[in-house]
Specification:
This protein has 349 residues and is an alpha/beta fold.
Length: 349
């Protein structure tokens, strides 16, 4: 039997790999959670290690700290990758970020050994569709596509590739996307639609429900009218002044809504609707949460989470709040193309 290796660095990457692994029972699947802080393991990985489902193995690889610490850790990670490549009969590689050095190093080593594989990029949100990261401005907008790749080529070798958009490096054979129609260009590797049913039905959906219960110590299900996905309170209160200002503004919406839940930012310390709306687990990855819920309306800040919501729940009315961001941007156009309604404020829903 052949092996497949999954390079993941975020909970979203892991979520998408779970569906892929359940779908393909002809291979042994191995998940490597890369670039992780020392001594801090994602709750999802802890749950997955105890209940691996379709994965033959689950392992976390650290990123180290400090300049010299990171370099030493990177050497150790490269050595471990070489050991795994030698031990496994790999013919398929999945990645949620084809610019990650661990993925490209593995591809380079497989090429050196003359071992052909089929590499698949699994969409990582809005970055998969825009030619630039929407949050990058000024010097970072220049450094990210030019200086960083040059430094990596100098530090690691000419095999490092940053050409093209995300998912379009020379190491990728195929892109699997939730909304292929949103691509700005048809150039790059082949494109395949990522079916939502892989995550909302069958063995994958049952496994995800088990992982959610393990992470939250309770079954998380919500079938109702409205789900509010709030940004961090620092951003929210910059527009509404304080918590009471936001509560006053959103009260008419809450009064007119049926059963409602709120999902706060994972790092939120101020529950602005604490006495108003029941909360869903804030540290639960959004994709996993949405896969367990059925909502008529989902209202949230602009993020990959809303694209996931529209993908996993196509019949829901998903609304993206502009929150006074200046002018029409490509990001909001992208949301509209995906069928997400763009509104000005949370109280406009």
């Amino acid at each position: 039997m052949k092996d497949a290796i999954h390079f993941c660095s975020t909970p979203r990457n892991v979520f998408l790999s779970i569906g892929q692994a359940w779908r393909d029972t002809t291979r042994r699947h191995h998940l490597l959670m890369i670039d992780q802080p020392e001594g801090k393991e994602e709750a999802l990985i802890t749950a997955l290690a105890a209940n691996p489902g379709p994965f033959e193995s689950v392992q976390t690889l650290p990123k180290g700290s400090g300049l010299f610490g990171k370099r030493a850790t990177r050497r150790q990670v490269f050595e471990l990758i070489r050991e795994r490549l030698t031990a496994w009969s790999i013919d398929r590689v999945f990645t949620g970020n084809d610019r990650r050095i661990e993925f490209q190093y593995a591809q380079y080593q497989l090429q050196l050994a003359n071992r052909p594989v089929h590499a698949i990029y699994l969409e990582d949100g809005v970055n998969s569709y825009l030619p630039f990261h929407p949050s990058h401005r000024g010097l970072r907008a220049i450094a990210d596509p030019v200086i960083e790749p040059l430094l990596k080529k100098i530090g690691y070798g000419s095999w490092y590739d940053r050409s093209g958009a995300v998912g379009c490096s020379r190491w990728v054979n195929e892109r699997q996307l939730t909304f292929p129609a949103l691509l700005q260009t048809q150039q790059g590797p082949d494109v395949v639609q990522l079916p939502a049913e892989n995550y909302t039905t069958g063995a994958a959906a049952a496994h995800i429900a088990q992982l959610v219960e393990s992470m939250t110590r309770e079954a998380v299900t919500f079938k109702g009218d409205l789900l509010l996905v709030l940004p961090h309170s620092n951003d929210l209160l910059a527009q509404y002044g304080d918590a009471k200002g936001f509560q006053r503004a959103i009260k008419p919406l809450l009064d007119s809504a049926g059963e409602t839940r709120v999902k706060y930012h994972p790092n939120e310390n101020l529950a602005v609707l604490e006495d108003w709306v029941a909360e869903l687990p804030r540290r639960l990855p959004m994709e996993m949460l949405i896969s367990q819920c059925v909502c008529r309306r989902i209202v949230g800040d602009t993020s990959a989470a809303l694209l996931s919501a529209k993908w996993l729940q196509p019949d829901a009315n998903v609304m993206s709040v502009r929150n006074s961001r200046p002018g029409p941007s490509r990001l909001f156009e992208l949301m509209a193309q995906a069928g997400v309604q763009v509104i000005e404020r949370f109280d406009s829903a």
